[in-house]
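Sample 1 of the test manifest.
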Amino acid sequence: MIDIRVQPTAIDLGQELAHFAAPGAGAIASFTGIVRSDDGVTAIELEHYPAMTEAHLQDLAAQAMSRWSLISCAIIHRVGRIALGEPIVLVIAAALHRAEALDACAFLIDRLKTEAPFWKREFRGDSALWVEAKESDTARADRWDRADGA
Amino acid sequence: MRIVYFAKVRETIGCSEEERQVPADLSVAGLIEQLAGEKASYASAFSDPARLRFALDQCLVSPTTLIGASKELAIFPPVTGG
C-alpha cells in the first residue's frame, strides 16, 4: 500500500504512525522534517507544482516498495505557510525487518529533497528569501544510485 | 504549448504561465535562449542555466531534450522541499 498526500493542513504525527502499526509489519521507520528557527526565521512557505508533485512522489514510493520489499509506505508533505516547530514532511516505511524499513525511509527523503518539485521560502518578519538547494543533498541522493546505498 | 514557471523563476519573470507556439525541433535550452533574447525579465531569470531545472509534461528532462509534441514545459530552480 502506498499513501501519498500533499496538503495545506497540519500533519498529525501520532495518528499517521498509528495507522502503520499492523500485524506483519515488524519494522516501521519514519522521518519527520520540522521547520527550524534558523537565524531569525519566523515562518516558511512551500510552493509546489501540483500537476507533477503527487505523480513524482508516487513514482519514488513505487521504487522503494519494490527495491526493499516494503509492506507499505507513506509520504505526506505540507504546502503553504508553515509555522516554526511544525512538521513539513513525514515519510514512513513499513517492512518485515528494520534494515529494509530504515534504508527505504532514507532513500525516500533523500530523493524527495532533490527531485520532488517543492520550493521553500523563509520569512524573517516581512522579508522573504527563497532557500537555495544544497550540494550535500545531491550527494546524499546520488548514493542511492549504487546498489547498496552505502 | 503551455510554459509554467515556479518559485524564484516565476517571481523574476512576473508570470506563472503562458501559452506559446514552439517548434517541435527546438530543444529546451534553445527555447530558453530564445526567450532570454526577447525580454530583460527572461534574460534575468535564465542568466544561470546551470541553476535551472526543466520538466516536459511533468517529467524531469535535460536541457538538450527536444520539445517535440509536449503540451507543458515547466521551468524552475533546483528543488528545496522536505
